[in-house]
Specification:
Elements (H helix, E strand, L loop, with lengths): L10 H10 L1 H22 L1 H6 L1 H30 L1
Helix pairs in contact: 1-2, 2-4
Length: 82
């Protein structure tokens, strides 16, 4: 899977992995929750200013999870291709 692909491009593979791999499902759900939290905080100017460091930590965690998700999708694609 190329990093230019989106979750929508891999919707079926993600659904399959979420069903058969509980760790993947947990990581994917955490990534989604972080995305929602970050968006909420960034919309609220007052909260954003007072929680900037926390938001940055959340963004780093989200990026790490995204890398893990892409690796899992890549590994799954290699297994299904073989």
């Amino acid at each position: 899977m190329r990093k230019t692909e989106t979750w929508q491009d891999n919707r079926e593979a993600i659904a399959e992995l979420k069903l058969k791999d509980s760790h993947f499902a947990t990581i994917f759900d955490e990534h989604t929750q972080l995305d929602q939290q970050i968006n909420q905080l960034e919309k609220d100017v007052v909260l954003h200013a007072s929680r900037e460091e926390e938001i940055e930590q959340m963004k780093r965690r989200k990026l790490y999870l995204k890398d893990v998700i892409y690796k899992a999708l890549e590994n799954n694609n290699l297994k299904t291709s073989a």
